[in-house]
Write a structure and sequence with these properties.
mainly beta; four-stranded antiparallel β-sheet; 11 strands; 0% helix
Length: 155
């Protein structure tokens, strides 16, 4: 990580400092994202973390702490124009976090194919798209921006 002061670190030959999570499983960072409030989030092979003002990684809960939801392999993060956070995983899950902090998980039970979510994207019209890695399936999905119990997350 670039030294936040922009000056030389203790080692005068570099402008870079390393910031490692205490949890060794969280050291495999798969995606970095800065949300609108300026929080830097790191998706890892062991969940989602936030880099705090002390440059320490704090775990962010993505659901029931008694489940595996907090230890997901995060592959992609998107914040849409309404402030909703969309999180894609390596195991066919999409997690939606509303601006109020409500967490919803979508899986194959919600019509997602059994495939790794490789990218999430919001187009100019506000439509949310998910790119899938080849495997059991692949391709592109158009998602409902506001899925409900009455409809699938997949349009």
């Amino acid at each position: 990580v670039l030294n936040p002061k922009g000056d030389r670190s203790e080692n005068e030959n570099t402008l870079f400092d390393s910031y490692l999570p205490e949890n060794p499983k969280a050291r495999h960072i798969t995606v970095l994202f800065e949300d609108r409030s300026g929080r830097v989030l790191g998706g890892t092979t062991d969940g989602l973390f936030q880099l705090n003002e002390k440059f320490e990684f704090e775990h962010i809960s993505l659901g029931d702490s008694n489940s595996d939801a907090d230890r997901l392999w995060i592959t992609t993060v998107l914040q849409d124009r309404r402030g909703v956070m969309w999180i894609g995983t390596n195991d066919s899950k999409i997690i939606r976090i509303s601006p109020a902090g409500n967490v919803e998980q979508y899986t194959t039970a919600n019509d997602l194919p059994d495939s790794k979510i490789s990218v999430l994207f919001e187009d100019a019209g506000g439509q949310i798209w998910a790119g899938l890695r080849p495997g059991n399936s692949g391709g592109l999905l158009r998602l409902f921006a506001d899925p409900t119990a009455e409809n699938s997350i997949v349009e």
